[in-house]
Amino acid sequence: MTHPTPLTKWGTLKPSKTDTFEHTINGLLTKRAELFNEAERLRDRTAEIKNDVAALDRVLGTLGYTGDLDSIMPRQKVVRLFGQGELLSACLHELRHADGPLTSREIARNIVELRGDDPDDRKYLSDMTRRISKCLRKERAAGRVVARQHSGKALVWSLSQEESASVWEED
């Protein structure tokens, strides 16, 4: 959607008839909505492409192709969401400031919201939940966090006694 620039018949810019920023705010809100819609279209298109690639892989397998499909793919730029140790740091921060044990999904939702990303993006939230679970399982093996069964296969995480004690010493 384009907005025509208000010009006089001599080609100069017409002065605004209002002293408020209501037109500017409306224009910015309109642009924001357009960008969100475009982002959603791009996410949908990306999902379509991934489905098409999976279908091509299945057909290649059906036709007898036995080579390594990943080895012939062009290299793609790696996008790192977190630097070294940042995800662990964010998880421990969430556990320190929680009122009780948290599930991996709750930790993921909190971190996604803190980053300013969309917590309602189910695929992104699932990916973050998987990453956090893996990160916390490593920390459980190191003794920094403890997990106990919550419901079904879900675990709730909390800091270990030693880690909790070190938090109080820092404060």
Number of strands: 3
| SSE order | HHEHHEEH
- The CATH architecture of the largest domain is Orthogonal Bundle
Instruction: Please compute the radius of gyration using only Cα atoms.
Output: 25 Å
CATH superfamily of the largest domain: Winged helix-like DNA-binding domain superfamily/Winged helix DNA-binding domain
Largest sheet: 3 strands, antiparallel
CATH first level of the largest domain: which class?
Mainly Alpha
Concise synopsis of the structure shown:
The protein has 171 residues and is mainly alpha-helical. The chain has helices spanning 22-62, 86-96, 104-115, 122-142, 161-170, and strands at residues 102-103, 145-149, 155-159.
Provide an overview of this structure.
This protein is mainly alpha-helical and 171 residues long. It folds into 2 domains: 22-72; 86-170, Orthogonal Bundle (Arc Repressor Mutant, subunit A), CATH 1.10.10. Helices cover 56% and strands 7% of the residues. It is built from 5 helices and 3 strands. It has helices at residues 22-62, 86-96, 104-115, 122-142, 161-170; strands at 102-103, 145-149, 155-159. Strands 1-3-2 form a 3-stranded antiparallel beta sheet. The longest helix has 41 residues, at 22-62. It starts with 21 loop residues before the first helix and ends with a helix. The mean pLDDT is 83.
